[in-house]
Design a protein that fits this description.
The chain has three helices and no strands. It has 80 residues and is mainly α. The longest helix has 32 residues.
């Protein structure tokens, strides 16, 4: 039975707050992995040399693809 003020049975018997079990967090779920306390691990920031090498590789690949496209265009115009 609740107290007249609506708190609950513990208030009537002299407890100012409910027992600690009421405020305890629920047990962890077996279906979900445990959360990391500080978020996901941070990725390492690449340095300037790595970025320059990556950019150089992309530029070489773009040049190769442009050459292939030009060859295909010349082959299409030569057949017509």
């Amino acid at each position: 039975m609740s107290c007249w003020c609506g708190h609950g049975p513990w208030h009537y018997h002299g407890y100012h707050y409910p027992p600690a079990a009421v405020y305890a967090p629920p047990p962890p779920s077996p279906y979900y992995p445990e959360t990391e306390p500080y978020g996901p691990p941070r990725r390492r920031r690449p340095d300037a040399e790595e970025l320059a090498e990556y950019l150089h590789g992309l530029e070489e690949e773009m040049a190769r693809i442009r050459r292939e496209i030009d060859d295909l265009r010349r082959a299409d115009t030569g057949e017509s």
